[in-house]
Amino acid sequence: MLEIFNAHKGRYGYRRILIIMRNKGYTINHKTVQKLMKILGLKGKQRKNEKYHSYKGEVGKIADNLLKRKFNADKPFEKLTTDVTQFKVCNEKVYLSPVMDLYNREIVSYSISLHPDLQQIRDMLGGLFTKLPDDAAPIFHSDQGWQYQHSEYQRLLSDHNIKQSMSRKGNCMDNGAMENFFGRLKVEMFYGEHFETVDEFINCLKEYIHYYNNERIISKLKMSPVQYRTHSLQS
Question: Hey, what domains does the chain have and what are their CATH numbers?
Fold first, then answer.
């Protein structure tokens, strides 16, 4: 148990440790895992309540909330969600703009920038468009941030047969899946960590996203996002 906890740098609580131990053949329940973790002094990292706000009023067209908090999908690229979050590093601000596929919670595209501008959103979309299947017509959800109201952003979605969806004003849980990802990311690789330079932080951020996609177990899926996608395609 200690080996599992340390291998994932204290990022795993009892639920994910339980999944790994059962995968290794141990017959054990969650109460026993919780008890042993308490005895060993193992406590998963806790999140803080911080959020970057990009809302600047109605500066463009507001889309309807097509997602309606239905954060599950039946196939890849059926429902996607995005947002922007901010990190303060070495007296600089770094912004992350990811795209999550709600089928398996995989981050299928992302861009990192020192400026939360339209170019960052173009880069995020560029990465998405290279992976989007030709026959896909996904719902793409976001909050009402100014960049998602921008006419160029909305045109690019329309050009790729993507249906835009937006959270209601002031309802962050309308984008709960992405909010949860941001919270977990900051707990597991940012809070309490020291970075000598912005470049070091950006490299660690990229490494974490790779770890999240390929290794980190999603409790509901009982495997990592990429493992789940690969497994489902083989079934």
Answer: 2-40 (no CATH), 79-234 (3.30.420.10)
